[in-house]
Amino acid sequence: MAFQPVKFYQTGTFTVGNRLLALEERSVQANMRRTNSLNSGHRACQGCGEALGARYAIDAAMEATGRRLIAANATGCLEVFSTPYPETSWQIPWIHSLFGNTAAVATGIAAAMRVKGKSDVRVIAQGGDGGTTDIGFGCLSGMFERNDDVLYICYDNEAYMNTGVQRSSATPPAARTATTTAVGEEPGNVFGQGKNLPAIAIAHDIPYVATATVAELRDLEAKVRRAMQIRGARYLHLFVPCPLGWGHASEDTIRIARLAKETGLFPVIEAVDGEVAAVSKIRRKLPVEEYLRPQKRFAHLFGSAPRSDVIARIQAIADRNIRRYGLVDA
Amino acid sequence: MLKQIEGSRAVAEAVALCRPEVICAYPISPQTHIVEGLGEMVKSRELARCEFINVESEFAAMSVAIGASAAGARAYTATASQGLLYMAEAVFNASGLGLPIVMTVANRAIGAPINIWNDHTDALSQRDCGWIQLFAENNQEALDLHIQAFRLGEELSLPVMVCMDGFILTHAYERVDVPTQAQVDAYLPPFEPRQVLDPAEPVSIGAMVGPEAFMEVRYLAHAKQMRALELIPGWADEFRAAFGRESGGLLHRYRTEDADTVVVALGSVLGTLKDTVDELRRDGVKIGVLGITCFRPWPLAAVRSALERAERVVVIEKSLAVGLGGIVSSNVGTSFGGSPGAVHAVIAGLGGRAITRASLSRMLADAVHGRLEPLTFLDLDRALVERALAREREQRRSGPIAESILRDLGVVASRPV
């Protein structure tokens, strides 16, 4: 039998849980002393992207701040599935006030910490896309403009999932939701102008803006860590697929998130002081169809009479993202 | 120290003496001078260890106060009118969470039509929001009530609204006695929250509660307010002992001992009423005044005892429960043992209309002689109303009501050139 060298396939990759990495390079989740800030036993659906994202983001923030962290949470799935009293999955000080005021509540907490000389205690505000891009937009913009010392994390699952999958301003064109049903001549959501919240955050010239997906959790952790090293208003827009609302298999959450990035529909970027500082390149560009097809919310585009016109318009959005942020190396 | 200052300034100085830690400000008339004053004190470091945050809306103002209070800081804000309505969701949230925020409401009408002048529609629209609501009669009381409000709110873990008449009090220069820092420090201990966001002892605040416990939580909010009814008189006594003057308490009685007719009101109109009652007393009318300082919780027993001897009660209402009549009189009705028909609601001073001694005299003479209707609108121009109604009968597109009424009135700007 010929000699066969042992090959460590994971060497050089950043797979979560990779035990071949140096200790300091390992994921927070690979550490036995991780905080489990959002502990097990909560009521999120199987395959929930938001639960996964929140766990990684908050544990990373806890590590970065030496466990000196307070979170304010908007009304929504994350709030509901993590808490109803007397159960709470939160192992950190946590407050839910209202749907639309989370950024302002976080501002108040940060002000209290400053005035009490406890500026080492850091503040995170978090909410879904509805609580961020729609009803909480005013408070969010105010927090940005004042440059309050808060990291706001938007878990974007592109609709109001907690109330039963209704359209938000983050819902993509053509997507079927309970209020943009797949009927009529133009089924699903309208082709509006969109509401690119990361771009709006960048336009506030705040110190740090980043986007991430739950497909690249090491990247997410690194961005949270970076955000916690900075003072002032910071914004993290996290793409979190929702198997229930989007109608994809619950084991496909990561795959769908990766496809969103690899098609160019969700640009993964970083911006510092109002300027894009880094982009996560698309490794192998894929047509948007690959992303749309596994999701029932887009099923009406692939019926007996496929809507290639609509798919082409969505492809144009992806192509524009790729051009705008240079997501593909020429 | 005696000072001749604007009501808003007096309140700002009182709030500063209470050592607030987070103040959120959003401009709306007529409360703006209060937060302007506080902003300057923070910026000049005259008020140290305090964060002054200029927010983007009243909704944010209350929300920042919620966050600050939940994190253990003494939080204050001020608003009025539309601002109070805009923050209404957060106002209910603050009391639901049991956060002892203190807020000044510089009472002002609610639009439409937009109107910046004084009445009580704003505060009374929030009467069931779970906050303690105190009404100041004059600037000295407005100043004093703020000091009492922090003590009361923090003791009970309830937010407190101090209501003072917009412009009439906020913009009036009056002599006030501003206490010393030592006096206030002795009266108001540091804030010790019952629940606090603290990494050393993590708690979840504000999570969902289902039918199995919601009733009890709401009942406890009510029970706390009932407890406030027991505590407020004692604290007013303590305040008198420490500061040497009568301020606050549940209500103020004026010449009610032998009165057959008692006039009930809130806020600055009490001054005019007392003068009017003095006049009527000189004519031998047995009449007195009952000022409600604490509107929420409603001092049921105290009002009942104050009205025990009264044959009739006249309630001056600076707000209108559209489709019903009086808000305050509905509350008074619960505390009056006599015939329900003997409680009269008099809607007066809406949108800043002056409540004059002459009008009050006429109306009270009618009351004493049994000629007052159950619901009266003081100084309402019936002819104008009739013309507006006629216009609506005559033409479908009768146009904006307020504009037409002003044209009918013949105000200068509406006259043809």
- How would you write the strand order of the largest sheet of chain B? 3-2-4-5-7-6-13
Proportion of strand residues of chain B:
15-25%
Distance between the terminal alpha carbons of chain B, to the nearest Å?
55 Å
What is the multimeric organization of the chains shown?
heterodimer
Helix fraction of chain A, binned, reads 25-40%
CATH topology of chain A: Rossmann fold
* Tally of discrete structural domains of chain A: 1
Radius of gyration of chain A: 20 Å
> Which fold name corresponds to the CATH topology of the largest domain in chain B?
Rossmann fold
Report Rg of chain B.
22 Å
Going across the biggest sheet of chain A, name each strand in turn. 2-1-3-4-6-5-7-8
How much of the sequence lies in strands of chain A comes to: 5-15%
Question: Can you walk through the features of this model?
Answer:
The complex is a heterodimer of chains A (330) and B (417). Chain A is α/β, with parallel strands linked by helices and 330 residues long. Chain A has one domain (23-325): 3-Layer(aba) Sandwich (Rossmann fold), CATH 3.40.50. Helices cover 33% and strands 13% of the residues of chain A. Chain A has helices spanning 49-64, 77-82, 102-115, 129-134, 137-146, 197-203, 217-228, 243-246, 253-263, 288-292, 308-325, and strands at residues 69-73, 94-96, 122-128, 151-156, 208-213, 234-239, 269-272, 275-279. Chain A has an eight-stranded mixed sheet, with helices on both faces. In chain A, helix 1 (49-64) crosses helix 7 and helix 3 (102-115) packs parallel to helix 5 (137-146). The longest helix of chain A has 18 residues, at 308-325. Chain A starts with 48 loop residues before the first helix and ends in a 5-residue tail after the last helix. Chain B is an alpha/beta fold and 417 residues long. Chain B has three domains: 2-243, 3-Layer(aba) Sandwich (Rossmann fold); 251-377, Rossmann fold (3-Layer(aba) Sandwich), CATH 3.40.50.920; 382-414, no CATH class. Chain B has 15 helices and 16 strands. In chain B, the strands form three sheets. A seven-stranded mixed sheet of chain B has the order 3-2-4-5-7-6-13, with helices on both faces. In chain B, strands 10-12-11-14-15-16 form a six-stranded mixed sheet, sandwiched between helices. Chain B has a two-stranded antiparallel ribbon with strand order 1-8. In chain B, strand 15, helix 13 and strand 16 (375-377) form a beta-alpha-beta unit. In chain B, helix 1 packs across helix 2 (32-43), helix 1 (7-17) runs parallel beside helix 7 (139-156) and helix 14 (382-394) crosses helix 15. The N and C termini of chain B lie far apart (55 Å). Chain A binds chain B through residues 67-70, 72, 79-80, 83-85, 88, 90-98, 100-101, 104-116, 121, 138-139, 141-142, 145-146, and chain B through 21-22, 24, 49-51, 53-57, 59-60, 62-73, 75, 89-90, 93, 97, 197-199, 201-210, 213.
